Amino acid sequence: MTILETSALTRRFGDLTAADGVNLAVAAGEVFGLLGPNGAGKTTVIKMLTTLLPPTAGTATVAGFDIRHHPARVRASIGYVPQLVSVDGALTGYENLLFFAKLYGVSRTVRAGRIEEALDFAGLAEAAGRKVRGYSGGMVRRLELGMALLHRPRVLFLDEPTVGLDPVARQAVWRQVRRLTQDFGMTVFLTTHFMDEADVLCDRLAIMNKGRVAALGSPEELKRSVQRAEATLDQVFAHYSGHPLETEHEGNYRDISQSRRNLARLG
Amino acid sequence: MKEIIATSPNPAAILPGSVEPPAGHVSPARWLGQCLTVAEMELHKLCHDPTELLTRAIQPALWLMVFGEVFTRVHAIPTGGVPYLDFLAPGVLAQSVLFIAIFYGIAVIWERDLGLVHKLLVSPASRAALVLGKALSAGVRGLSQAVIVYLLAWLLGVQMNWHLPAMLGMAFTVLLGAAVFSTFSLIIACIVKTRERFMGIGQILTMPLFFASNAMYPIALMPGWLKVIAHVNPLTYEVDAMRALMIHGGASAYGVGFDFGVLLLAMAALTVIGARLYPNLAR
Asked: Which of B1, B41, B120 sits opposite A110 (nearest CB)?
């Protein structure tokens, strides 16, 4: 069953076409990965699907609702963890959960139970009363993922969920993502530029390059498609995006200084 | 624990425990709840770190204790029979609320740089409720300033109006004033988007708003062109209501009801604009 479908989804910024006729279909319950170098259009696609950015042309349905005509209904059916930090450092972990539970309209009768469950899920039951400013990067991400348990979205969008995390924290995030699909039946749509993450975590992948979908399939299918014995996903990526995933596409000075500032801010 | 399982028009069944997608419009109760939630969290933050309130009290203290005490001795400004310090006290409170409110634009840009704005905008909460919630938060901070300025003014010998209806009216004026200028500040933040540009524009706007109002001197003293500006400046009506409600013997030039009307109208217009522009922050 298809839970997310885009049809010729396009977004232009002036002369630049950030997403160019993107066609994707995601089945309910799968972990779908959007892979690509910086500037490939991954974040633009996720912003359109989460109703943050209206498409220039084309459309998409998420959880049965059209993103152009029913953005409010789409928002009520999804969860979103942006690339940057989406919790308030001046509040405690518990308060952040309470805040979003209320904004998401989680009814009073189940609220306390849901928050407790989210804290357990994030492994933050003991740190719940501490300000998020004092959390590690991994704890912040776990808290953000735990928020999905508050309102139980049908589709959860994760934009670069493990950027800036150490290997242990990354694996914890992967475990959480799997539990969200297996135990709670959510569909996860994520972007990443880590090949190992895509390989281990995603059921199916789309490789984006210059705003277009260059390849689509399971990690195994993609590896087979490049006519090369024992192809790694890195080689697949290089094949479809025209260049290896190297530092030349790491974003501009402003992006870097901002992400570093954000990490520093969280201590 | 009751699970909510709703019938929905979409082909897929809803996950057990999902929140049902609201149909187009948010109910007024839920809408108000969302506003209050935003303000409630602000209150939590204030409780975590109340030192900010004290540091913010320094500026009004200087205005009253230095500027006010000196100009009271000059007797140059026609105040309509009340001592200059009494005349100035509501102006200083309005200024202090204005400065807090203008700071909200920076706070919103900060939230944008973090990613919190994106998360809020993807929540099913109404955008107007989020904007008004921020405005209410500014009001809560403004009220804390009111307590401090009331105490300071009283200690300096200002004849305060301690009647309960007047004080409730004051609280309402502070909330409205903070809401108007914080939403104004949010709109500017939505347009300029970066902290550097906001700092520049914030400076350029705050002082003229303050000086082109009746906060420190009556409008009657102003040259013609400045009078025009002062009359379209919402701060003038905020100060006018405060002057009638805060001090003993203070009088309103336009009538408190008219002042409230102007502020409410400004508030409504700014909220509509703010709610439209707020999503720009995440694009």
From this structure: B1
